[in-house]
Amino acid sequence: MGIDVLERGALPFPGSLPEFQRLFPDEAACAAYLERTRWSDGFVCSRCGTLGAPYRFAKRPTVLRCRHCQHNSYLTAGTIMERTHTPLSVWFWAAYLVASQTPGMSAIQFQRQLGLSRYETAFQILHKLRAGMVRPDQDRIGGKLGENVEVDETYVGGRTRGKGRGVHDMVLVAGAVEVRQRKRSSGLNKRKTRRYAGRVRLAVVPDRSAKSLGGFVESTVASGASIITDDWSGYAKLGESGYGHTAVAERGDRQVAEHFLPIIHLVFSNLQTWLRGIHHGVSPQHLQGYLNEFTFRFNRRFYPFNAFRSLLGIVGDVTAPTYAELYAKKKSHPTISSTVGR
Ligand SMILES: [Zn+2]
Predict the structure, then answer these.
(1) What is the Cα–Cα distance from 57 to 48, expressed in whole angstroms?
(2) CA of 52 to the centre of ligand 1 (A)
(3) pLDDT, tens digit, for every residue of 179-190?
(4) Cα of 314 to ligand 1 centre, how many Å?
(5) For the chain, which terminal residue's Cβ has fewer other Cβ atoms within 10 angstroms, N or C?
(6) What is the pLDDT of residues 244-294, one digit of tens each?
(7) Measured distance CA(267)–CA(185) in Å, rounded
(8) Residue 54 Cα to ligand 1 middle (Å)
(9) Is the separation of the CB atoms in 63 and 57 below 8 Å?
């Protein structure tokens, strides 16, 4: 074994599926990874607290049995792999695909990539993994000393097939992003700071009123944070809500906004490109789910192994929908083409 998968802190995320498959070649490698993740200092029986090597079973790598009280611990307990008959390696490879690939992969493509014989299995795995992405992150962003949060709103949507030219079904999306500073040495002795995006929050909002935009900010940005917006009246009361608020007078000049709100505009531009890449377009009903997926990927873009682990539910608890629940929800929706504009 050349690479120690358990040294995950130092492990670069594999750049290709074959590379990934070399890290997790079989059930034993995946099970070892789960075991080390759960018991970094060695196995402890959850019933009697006994430390030390458990009994292991070659044909059931996810079961660890306490040598003292015979209690079984299951490595997949609390993860989305719990109680499935699909091999761990298939789940691991599936999570890798979802974490590293572009959106809109169909269950058929997924089935082919994973070499699964049953479509239903591919469908179920794909949707359980996606459920991990579309669940919104709950904590509020911002609030670190010296860190600003840029807030703005944009329209997403565009022409609807069959409705002729013009704008239909435009959906208003509010966005907030942490602006971080990266110290950079440039030249011989000058130290330049460079701004880049931290975490992002995105939500569909009904309109540009103070109630909608203020409500978005209060649910997504930590109180007391320093916020930069344009001077739209919808943001005028943020100061009263306990934020440090700077409103930049735009006066219809887009360049002023680009200068003072560059990071959120970059996020919106990435979002629009990403939505355009979704093969069948996004219906307004499903837009929030896609915003959450974009947010999931964006916020973990520097940490793809974290994305992989959260998809499998290795950290935290995940309730994934069942196949029956998914099918019950399937309805036909009118679909807007994913042409996107502001
Ligand atoms: Zn025990």
Answers:
(1) 20
(2) 10
(3) 998 776 555 545
(4) 23
(5) N
(6) 999 998 776 777 777 889 999 999 999 998 888 776 667 888 899 889 999
(7) 26
(8) 9
(9) yes
